[in-house]
DNA sequence: CCGCGATGTATCGGACCGATACATCGCACG
DNA sequence: CGTGCGATGTATCGGTCCGATACATCGCGG
């Protein structure tokens, strides 16, 4: 999972570890808190050893402009390789059981913009199936074993059940949306129109997304 | 966390590993899928080594009734010790940062029936604080970094934000409920009364809860 | 000038998972 | 009658990831 996430992020732009962690936290903030360095650095090393990423030189184009005033220290900038891109494409397209658990689904979903529609659909449906199973499990417990459990435990199950139902509905909308029409956005409360707004009129000032 | 959960469950009744796993899945089904044996058995051994639990003999009172027809195999039944109960009491009352993450909170909450009210309140408020922070983080990303992210990532954040807001509201109700009055149940949609119903009229047929 | 918070790299022990192996039991199906 | 299969049951191994910790640099304000 971490491997996939790192490869995905580095595909957008080269980064060093610290930055990677922050971007990861921003992109996956809804899923998991923040990746630990104890996972990050070993994984970076592993990816490098496998040849998916390489260390990039620090000040690349404008070699002599800035360094005088910052005197770049030992920041290690990583960059994805061609093999790394292949690896990413392979990882993002292949689905196993771990694709549908909370973290796995979150990571895959976060990179849906780089995933083909068939795979997106497969993942969304797999996730829905999994959540439906969890939901049924919770319903069973609430229906059948309620008298064995105390009120707090029961309340916990109810809250979990609620979350399941909610997520299934969310997934339904995404799936419908995905199937016919191609807009990623779920219709917000009451907005019925088919017109999907593209997100940003090109931001005027700072655009540091991709390197040209 | 596993340690706490096992100690808590064994406090209700002695069990063997397999049973423990199933009960755990039932009690924490809203939180986590099912504990792996690769965690369970080593932990059981650790707890036994520490003296918190002991192996109990298989057929305890009615020694010769059943064994003829089932010929009890190597099931290892574990039982909590007096020290184990102390340990549980200590673990359930002490709160660290890990008490407020998803799993930690879930486990603590599942044993709220064995937790004193002050601790319950502390945990609920700590959890609320943590979720509020997560919520603010997501709002920040959605407000400030929206144009840097693709529509799918954005949708993920929105869904996460929604879940946060929902959980905060849930916690608010639980906290209010906890503060004045002592009923564990959150008022279900429209049910305004103060009367809290006790759950089960004694179920007539099969009662295989505790061992006699 | 000095401390302090942000930036930045790195390691270590431990918790937990997923796959796997293996043995027994009861029952359904041929 | 046997036989095979799914549930019950115990156990280990490798791998992923976390949390704590250490350490070094930078810019800023007191």
From TrEMBL, chains A, B:
Organism superkingdom: Bacteria
Region Disordered, annotated ranges: 179-212
Domain Transcription regulator PadR N-terminal residue range list: 6-89
SUPFAM superfamilies registered for this protein in UniProt: Winged helix' DNA-binding domain
Keyword set, alphabetical order: Coiled coil
One Pfam family here: PadR
Coiled coil: 121-155
Protein's UniProt name: PadR family transcriptional regulator
Organism: Micromonospora musae
Taxonomic path: Bacteria, Bacillati, Actinomycetota, Actinomycetes, Micromonosporales
């Amino acid at each position: 999972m971490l491997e996939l996430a790192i490869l995905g992020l580095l595909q957008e732009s080269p980064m060093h570890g610290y930055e990677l962690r922050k971007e990861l936290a921003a992109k996956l903030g809804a899923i998991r808190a923040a990746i630990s360095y104890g996972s990050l650095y070993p994984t970076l090393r592993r990816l490098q050893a496998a040849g998916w990423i390489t260390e990039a030189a620090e000040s690349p184009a404008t070699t002599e402009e800035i360094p005088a005033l910052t005197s770049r220290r030992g920041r290690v900038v990583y960059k994805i390789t061609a093999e790394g891109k292949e690896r990413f494409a392979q990882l993002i397209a292949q689905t196993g059981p771990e694709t549908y658990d909370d973290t796995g689904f979150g990571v895959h979903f976060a990179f849906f913009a780089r995933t083909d529609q068939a795979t997106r659909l497969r993942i969304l449906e797999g996730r829905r199936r999994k959540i439906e199973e969890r939901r049924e499990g919770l319903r069973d417990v609430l229906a059948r074993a309620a008298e064995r459990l105390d009120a707090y435990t029961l309340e916990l199950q109810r809250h979990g059940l609620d979350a399941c139902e909610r997520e299934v509905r969310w997934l339904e909308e995404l799936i419908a949306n995905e199937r016919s029409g191609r807009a990623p956005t779920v219709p917000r409360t009451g907005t019925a129109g088919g017109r999907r707004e593209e997100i940003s009129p090109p931001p005027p000032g700072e655009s540091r997304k991709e390197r040209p």
